[in-house]
Amino acid sequence: MPTLRKFLVGTAFALGALSVSLVGPAHADWKPRKPVEFIIMAGTGGGADQIARLLQGLIEKKDLSPRPFIPINKPGGSGAEALLYLKDKAGDDHTVLVTLNSFYTTPIIQTDLGVDISTFTPIGRMALDTFLLWVHADNTEITDLDSYVAAVKAAGTEWKVGGTGSGQEDSILTAMMESEFGYEVTYIPFPGGGTVAKNLIGKHIDSTVNNPAEQNEFYRAGQSKPLVQFTPERMAAYPDIPTAQELGHDIVYFMQRSINGPPGMSAEARAWYIDLFKTLFDSEEWQTFCVEDGLTCDEWVAGDDLAAFHAEQGMRHRELIESVGAEAITGE
Fold first, then answer.
1. Is the pTM of this model over 0.90?
2. Most buried residue, 23, 243, 297, 313, by most Cβ within 10 Å?
3. More confidently predicted of 77 and 325
4. Rounded to the nearest 5°, which phi and psi values hold at 178?
């Protein structure tokens, strides 16, 4: 199985330099006339859920919308439930979706889904989220990546790695590590990253590749510990944790956190939402959250530039799935 290298990061920063502004007269007379459904394609407690609820709270706190945003979790089928819901909302100006990389992988793997994400309405990319490898703090035998790999190889498929869904980000990164280190684990899917984190603390699984926001509460309480981060450079929130690249393993993987509307959203509504989320992106509260929780939020990408980013990442994830085989990331 070929070694995998640097998926998502390359075009993330190349396209990050681009942006689009559709504010102005085009949407001057448009605003929500009823509550906005804020769809989350993952379960409660995970990174996407935390982000959506933070943004919803900021919209209310700053009085940025005349109608409330209502967070609604639709995690079924590794995000397929949310994608189908958005597809069926074609032409609706009062529904937006918070996405993960399953925005790309679920339609690729579930070939009968009938969802074409290129028809959706790209609004804005709020962040590139990051991943770390976590074990329980009580596991004193594992202190670094080498001792982790040794423990996994000794346990074989008895080693249980928890992650969000099948064919989603966590299972992709798990498959990348299996390929890189030459071991095989048992991957256990959960509906959301928050549930994954709790199962690690409860010792029902042996390790995770949770996003920082999903583990930080337990990390700060001394219940879990990170071993390695899958970023090009060490994040400010984890200055003492090495990157995989530092250790000689060229594994870099990011997850996009973007806002998208259904097919056929009006130009006026899209412009209003781009303006809204750009305001949130620039806010002190959001930028502070990004630093503290290890997200990359230094480039705003919106509208047509976000569509180009999605197209490139869809292609890259298709290549990744073909490299490891769909069965490697779905457990089938």
1. no
2. 313
3. 77
4. -60, -45
